[in-house]
Amino acid sequence: MGLLNLPTSKRNPRHWRLLDIVSAVLFGFVFLFFLLVFTPLGDSLAASGRQTLLLSTSDPRQRHRLIALVESGHQQTIESCPAEAVDHMPCEDPRRNSQLSREMNYYRERHCPLPEDTPLCLIPPPEGYKIPVQWPESLHKIWHDNMPHNKIADRKGHQGWMKHEGPYFLFPGGGTMFPDGAVQYIEKLGQYIPISGGVLRTALDMGCGVASFGGYLLAEDILTMSFAPRDSHKSQIQFALERGIPAFVAMLGTRRLPFPAFSFDLVHCSRCLIPFTAYNATYFIEVDRLLRPGGYLVISGPPVQWPKQDKEWADLQGVARALCYELIAVDGNTVIWKKPAGDSCLPNQNEFGLELCDESDDSNLCMGEYAIGMIPKWPERLTVAPSRTIVLKSGIDVFEADTRRWVRRVAFYKNSLKLKLGTTTVRNIMDMNAFFGGFAAALKSDPVWVMNVVPARKPSTLPVIFDRGLIGLYHDWCEPFSTYPRTYDLIHVTGIESLTKDPVSRKSRCNLVDLMVEIDRILRPEGTVVVRDTPEVIEKVARIARAVRWLATIHDEEPESHAREKILVATKTVWKLSSSSH
Predict the structure, then answer these.
(1) Cβ atoms 112, 90 nearer than 8 A
(2) Torsion (CA) 180, 183, 189, 194 in degrees, nearest 10
(3) Is-contact 542 571, C-beta < 8 A?
(4) How many CA atoms lie less than 13 Å away from 100 in the CB half-sphere?
(5) Quick one: angle between helices 535-547 and 512-522, nearest 10?
(6) How far apart are CA 320 and CA 312, in angstroms?
(7) What are the pLDDT digits (tens) for 266-295?
């Protein structure tokens, strides 16, 4: 280090500044090399770089190349999304939707990104994720770490919604309007409406919270579709599904809900705060469309006999009278109405001048044959061909053949393919292409519920599914589904490629890779996927299955089948983000 001691007169100042710069740069390169090679930061930076490359959507061609590699089998695995994406729902992304209009809650409805704007990556589980608690124990408790969101427990614990205790969230069964428990509340409703005996089967719970009302109605053989938006409570539907209760994310806003007319025997709102009389009673009319003739509407909470809401309560009663609803009871802050069973209530013959039936849609089915009392009770209605099978030529014959076919197929699934149907490991099931709901009907004796999806551009068979006492919704599979990640134990699909094609032109509207990445998003770790399709399609599905980290096997169809099909059975593997991915 003698240079530092040279007399000033012996130094060359310009030369020394140049040496300083060169030395500093060399030292920096050496330090960075050691940092990247010998410390965890190097792994983290590398992972971050890969992720940035993966999530970049500025160049659609890059995304298309990746999809082509996956379809051809040349891409071994699709990368994982970053840790903060564990609860990502593409169509209910608050970061994007918060920029939209608040009018009629437009910003809380579905708003899906274009495929090219969607990252092609696999949603990771949260740190500490465990295989969910099994049904029926899950009705009362779930693992805290599977969705470690304490906000509802902190805010609503005193109302009996849920509480955090040790490694669990516990669900006492309460709600804002029934803090003493859903069981007592349901017993009170049973004084006015036929809760027991199979008269009522399908119910809709609007603004459901953690869905305890629907969860406890299951004991009465009433199957409830619960919904709520992704709002300030954030994860209420996520909790409901983790408990094993049928639910999905939705908002009563500017659009109709994805159900046909006359779907539900009972519609319920417990402090759902839906402004039923606003916008010329738009929301009440939507409820009327969905409620089966002779069905019951229950509203608990504001504005029913609520302080300082006299006008709102009077308006609500006025709309009900305009729609010819029969007032059954007002019990405290709960009102119960019954929808007329026939066509006695005609358009424009009411004090509000409301249009009851619109010739342009399915709500013009103002016929008593769909009314409560005219359809068979549960469980008989499950196997009796409903009159709405006329949507297809020879619909009744097709219905009966489809019912027999699925009894055989489900027996084959259980006995030959050894699927875990009928065991406590399978609770939440989705049929992505449900047709008449035959697959779900064949599972009647199993401790499961099935979300029957009738895809866009397919025959409109969803009314038949509801008429037979099952539940489901319409959905376009070229868009993500409105649910949280990791919510289904088993996902079943017949004719998977048809979900991506236009039925008339047969041209692709979207691709199988995006669809299977979406299936992976909503499937639980260790969950099962069953795909039926032609051998050529199944071969393509098997290649993509490897890329989404499923373990897949291919089987021949059941011996009695005359279709040219193969069956792929896949299991979603349990994987975690490496520490370098955080």
Answers:
(1) yes
(2) 180
(3) no
(4) 19
(5) 60
(6) 12
(7) 999 999 989 999 999 999 999 999 999 999
